[in-house]
Amino acid sequence: MLYWEKAFIFRNEGTMAYMGKDVGDKLGRWYMTSVRVRYQESDQMGVVYHANYLNWFEIGRTEMIRELGITYRSMEELGVLLPVTDLDMKFSQPARYDDEITIFTRMTVFSKLRIKYAYEVRRLSDQERGALPEKNNAEGTELPGELLVSGTTSHVWVNREWQPVRLDKSAPVLYNALNHSLIGGGDS
Question: Is residue 43 annotated as a catalytic residue, yes or no?
């Protein structure tokens, strides 16, 4: 899959909070990555075991950050960690062995102290998967496919001693890169 296909972005209606400011849908961009359900992730009935969705959320989060030009490894090398502080999941339909599923991920809150992500794990038909590039940047576009699981994770920036840190003070280069990538440099 080409970079532009993998980095295809949807916009979702609604507003996001950034440092107490309404920034509209600037943080509402959906990033996507796809995986195929492996045999080891399913039970004897071919249904995915629920804990695997947590791994897929992490894959979505990691790939989203990577597409912004940042890796979790580089964040850790700067001395900042991003542990999960809260998790919410809602199951709609099961994923099954050998399904190709798509993980849609976006940041809904980004501040000097915290990040919150939203996820939707969906099963797309071949037709829906093929039509993705045609819908690029469409305002208010519904995510394609059958919703399997939706959820959120909340995270807090900490140092290697697990003490909360302000990202703008402890890793200003990282803060500025995220700020610029996610909200257009904070000019709004």
Answer: yes
